[in-house]
From TrEMBL:
<dbReference type="InterPro" id="IPR041243">
    <property type="entry name" value="STI1/HOP_DP"/>
</dbReference>
<feature type="domain" description="STI1">
    <location>
        <begin position="301"/>
        <end position="340"/>
    </location>
</feature>
<protein>
    <recommendedName>
        <fullName>STI1 domain-containing protein</fullName>
    </recommendedName>
</protein>
<dbReference type="GO" id="GO:0005634">
    <property type="term" value="C:nucleus"/>
</dbReference>
<dbReference type="InterPro" id="IPR019734">
    <property type="entry name" value="TPR_rpt"/>
</dbReference>
<dbReference type="InterPro" id="IPR011990">
    <property type="entry name" value="TPR-like_helical_dom_sf"/>
</dbReference>
<feature type="repeat" description="TPR">
    <location>
        <begin position="185"/>
        <end position="218"/>
    </location>
</feature>
<feature type="compositionally biased region" description="Low complexity">
    <location>
        <begin position="269"/>
        <end position="283"/>
    </location>
</feature>
<feature type="compositionally biased region" description="Acidic residues">
    <location>
        <begin position="72"/>
        <end position="86"/>
    </location>
</feature>
<dbReference type="GO" id="GO:0046983">
    <property type="term" value="F:protein dimerization activity"/>
</dbReference>
<dbReference type="Pfam" id="PF17830">
    <property type="entry name" value="STI1-HOP_DP"/>
</dbReference>
<feature type="repeat" description="TPR">
    <location>
        <begin position="117"/>
        <end position="150"/>
    </location>
</feature>
<keyword id="KW-0802">TPR repeat</keyword>
<comment type="similarity">
    <text>Belongs to the FAM10 family.</text>
</comment>
<dbReference type="InterPro" id="IPR034649">
    <property type="entry name" value="Hip_N"/>
</dbReference>
<keyword id="KW-0677">Repeat</keyword>
<feature type="region of interest" description="Disordered">
    <location>
        <begin position="234"/>
        <end position="294"/>
    </location>
</feature>
Length: 398
C-alpha cells in the first residue's frame, strides 16, 4: 500500500515528534490542544508546564576552559650571615644572671634620699677606680634604690658590669637609662660596647655612632673603629640580600606572568578545538534535530500563536495534521496557505542538511510545504504537478 505521506512530510513529522519529545510542554499551548488530545487518546501523558522557546545564552559560546592553577614555587632561601667572614676576636658568651634590681619606678625620692644616693654614687666611683667592680655594682644598686629616676646611675652600673664581662646585665641597665634619658651618651656608649662583646656588630656600631654624635669620646670612637669593619660587611651583605630578594621577586612575577599567558593560550586553543569539534548551536545536524532555539526563529512567536487562535486556522491545521493530504482542501484559502508557507519556511531554514528539510519547509507549501500543493482528488501520486493556481483568490472571507 502506497503511503499517502511523502518522505519530506515524514521527515518533518519525525522532527516535530522529536521536538515534542525534548520539549513536551509545547503541547500545552491552546493551539495544539488537538494534538495533545490525540496523544492522550493513545494513552500518552503530556507533562504540565509552560512552554518557552529554548535559547542558547551567550550566543552559543562554549564556556571557556579555566586556566590551570600555577604550581607553587619553592621559596629561595637567602644567604645566611654565616657566609660572611667576620673577625670574631673578643666575642664572649652572654651572661645568664638574674636581672639586677632596677628600683621602684613609681617612687618619688625626697631630697634627703637624693643626697644619700649621691653619696653612694661617690663611693661606687671610688670602688670602680680601685677595680672593685662588684663593690661598685652594689653601691650603685643602693643609689638606684634611693633614686631610681637617675639615668647616670644605671649607665655607670652598666659600665661596671662590662668589667665583669656581663654584657647582658650592662644592656639591661643601659636600656633603663635610655628610658629615663634618651640622650644619654654614656648609655649608648656602654650598650654599644656590650653588643660588641656579644658579636652584635651592627647594633654595636649603631649605638657607638650615636654616642659619638651626642658627646664625642675618644674611647667610644676607638670602640666604633673596632666594630666598623664587621658591621660594614654585614650591612653590605644585607644590601646584597635585599637586592637579590628584589631580583628574585621580579623573576617570580615574570614567571607567573609567563605561566598565566601560557595557560590562557592553552585554554584558548582548547576552546577553539572544542568549537571546531562540536557543531555550532545554530547549525543543523546531519540528520538530527535542528537547533531547538531557532526552530521558530524565522516565525514571530506572537504571530504564530495569534494565527492559531483563529478557530478556522486551528480547525484547518488539525485537519491537515490528521491527514496531510487534506491540504488540497485549502489550496484556495490564502489565510491557511500563507501560514503553511511561513511555517514551512521557518522549519526549513532551521534544519540545514538535517532536521527539518530546508529550502521551503513543508513540502508543497510555496517552494515546498505540506504535500498536496499539486495534489488532486484523483491523483494517487502525491508528487504529481498541477498547473499553478493564482496566489490570491477572493474567497469572500474578508
Amino acid at each position: 500500500m502506497t503511503c499517502p505521506v511523502g518522505p519530506e512530510e515524514l521527515a518533518k513529522l519525525r522532527a516535530f515528534i522529536g521536538f515534542c519529545t525534548n520539549q513536551p510542554e509545547i503541547l500545552n499551548i491552546p493551539q495544539l490542544d488537538f494534538f495533545k488530545e490525540f496523544v492522550e487518546k493513545l494513552g500518552g501523558k503530556v507533562p504540565a508546564g509552560e512552554f518557552k522557546i529554548p535559547t542558547f545564552e551567550g550566543n552559543g559560546e562554549q564556556p571557556k576552559a579555566s586556566a590551570p592553577a600555577p604550581e607553587p614555587e619553592p621559596e629561595e632561601e637567602s644567604e645566611p650571615e654565616s657566609d660572611v667572614e667576620l673577625d670574631m676576636t673578643g666575642v664572649i658568651e652572654g651572661d645568664k644572671d638574674e636581672p639586677q634590681p632596677m628600683g621602684d619606678a613609681s617612687k618619688e625620692p625626697t631630697e634627703e634620699e637624693m643626697d644619700q644616693a649621691g653619696e653612694f654614687r661617690s663611693k661606687a666611683a671610688s670602688a670602680y677606680s680601685e677595680q672593685n667592680y662588684q663593690e661598685a655594682i652594689d653601691l650603685y644598686t643602693k643609689a638606684i634604690e634611693l633614686n631610681p629616676h637617675n639615668a647616670l646611675f644605671h649607665a655607670k652600673r652598666g659600665q661596671a658590669f662590662l668589667k665583669l664581662n656581663k654584657p647582658n646585665a650592662c644592656i639591661r641597665d643601659c636600656n633603663r637609662a635610655l628610658e629615663l634619658n634618651c640622650d644619654s651618651a654614656a648609655a649608648y656608649k656602654f650598650r654599644g660596647r656590650a653588643h660588641r662583646l656579644l658579636g652584635n656588630w651592627e647594633d654595636a656600631a649603631k649605638d657607638l655612632r650615636q654616642a659619638v654624635k651626642l658627646d664625642f669620646d675618644e674611647e667610644a670612637d676607638e670602640w666604633l673603629k673596632e666594630v666598623t669593619p664587621n658591621a660594614k660587611k654585614l650591612e653590605q651583605h644585607k644590601i646584597k640580600q635585599e637586592r637579590n630578594k628584589a631580583e628574585r621577586e621580579l623573576r617570580k612575577r615574570q614567571e607567573r606572568l609567563r605561566k598565566a599567558q601560557e595557560a590562557n593560550r592553552k585554554a584558548q586553543q582548547e576552546q577553539q578545538q572544542q568549537e571546531q569539534s562540536q557543531p555550532r548551536p545554530n547549525a543543523g545536524g546531519a540528520g538530527g534535530m535542528p537547533n531547538l532555539g531557532n526552530l521558530f526563529g524565522n516565525l514571530n512567536q506572537a504571530e504564530f500563536l495569534s494565527a492559531f487562535s483563529d478557530p478556522e486556522v486551528s480547525a484547518a491545521m488539525q485537519d491537515i495534521m490528521t491527514n496531510p493530504a487534506n491540504i488540497t482542501k485549502y489550496q484556495s484559502n490564502p489565510k491557511i496557505m500563507n501560514l503553511i508557507t511561513k511555517i514551512g519556511s521557518a522549519m526549513g531554514g532551521a534544519g540545514g542538511a538535517g532536521g527539518f528539510p530546508g529550502a521551503g519547509g513543508f513540502p508543497g507549501a510555496g517552494a515546498g510545504g505540506f504535500p498536496g500543493a499539486g495534489f488532486t482528488a484523483g491523483d494517487t501520486n502525491t508528487g504529481a504537478s498541477q498547473k499553478p493556481k493564482p496566489d490570491f483568490t477572493d474567497d469572500g472571507l474578508d
